[in-house]
Amino acid sequence: MTNTKWAIDPVHSSVDFSIKHMMIANVKGTFNRFDAVIDADPTDLTTANIQFTVDLSSIDTRNEDRDNHLRSGDFFNVENYPTMTFQSSKIVSKGDGEYDVTGELSLHGVSKVETFEVTYEGSGKDPWGNEKAGFTVEGAIKRSEYGLTWNSALETGGVLVGDKVKISLDVQAAKAE
């Protein structure tokens, strides 16, 4: 198969994250608005071009006060840095539909090379004849490397917010006509 254009299906996809709180528990959240441009053969991603954009103002941790704090200048500063983007640059097959996808992640005015593990989950046609493909994505970044350093020391030692952010995506894409 040759590379073709694919459009992300936001109704059947998610962009989620988790981070340590008080060094003892994980807080989870999601971003409700995102988009991607994918030019790929879903069964062989090694020649794919993947561009992903996340609207940071769409953060949802199920707590409005926390979400507003995350949108503020203490964290994402969405007025000045409204999006997080990823552009693939190298994709290596690990076999069995698993890949290491490396590219430039831009967040909070900082761009760094990051690698994410991507698994091709399969493809098929929906009841209306549209071709779909599914992928899962896992990875982690250090928020401090992107200038996201706000924190508060705990009187028992440690910090309020962890540095490592685990990222998890479930993506369903539709073949573009």
Automatic annotation (TrEMBL):
One Pfam family from the record: YceI
InterPro entries named among the record's database cross-references: Lipid/polyisoprenoid-bd_YceI, TTHA0802/YceI-like_sf
Gene3D superfamilies in alphabetical order: Lipid/polyisoprenoid-binding, YceI-like
Domain Lipid/polyisoprenoid-binding YceI-like, chain residue ranges per copy: 5-174
Family label: Belongs to the UPF0312 family.
Protein name, UniProt field: Polyisoprenoid-binding protein
Organism: Cytobacillus citreus
